[in-house]
Amino acid sequence: MRYIFYCPNCDFTGSDEQNKANNPPKCPQCGKILNYTGVSQDDWRSKTKEEKTLLKDKWKQSHLELQKDINNRRINHMLTSGYNFEGYKIVSYNGIVSGEVVLGTGFLSESSASLSDFFGTVSEEFSTKMVKAKEMATSKMLDSSTLKGGNAIIGVDFDYTTFKNNMIAVSANGTSVTIEKVL
Which partner from 76, 143, 151, 168 sits 20 to 30 angstroms from 16, CA to CA? Predict the structure, then answer.
């Protein structure tokens, strides 16, 4: 059976097989992932233009509310390299989360680093690249935790790797949890 998928970004609707609900297709207009609606293609065809508009408005509104909730949880996410938070209790474990980033150092950074190495000084360019890669990996890890329903991450760990083409890789890892304040 085919079901309706909806893009809240550009208002596109289209149908696809039900088994795609777990692996939704991308919007052919904007490239964003389409939302599964649960409405069958046959049911959609039987709706009037006004009913379709009302459904699209409902889908868009619930998507906006979900985005707002996700953004709030992401902003207030707590991180620790430990395994608990003072004054909070863990109410659920949501699984392991990670974020990986590979960044090129660039010609200018390499030249500057060579001079720093020659004179025995600190390479600010490489330090800046490392910080940027760590922030990007942390951001991806937060996104993963938020999508799993978490509001905190415990056991945060960073792994750094360099590749022979002067590429820097950073992996941020932890366990997504849901915590509540202890009264």
Answer: 143
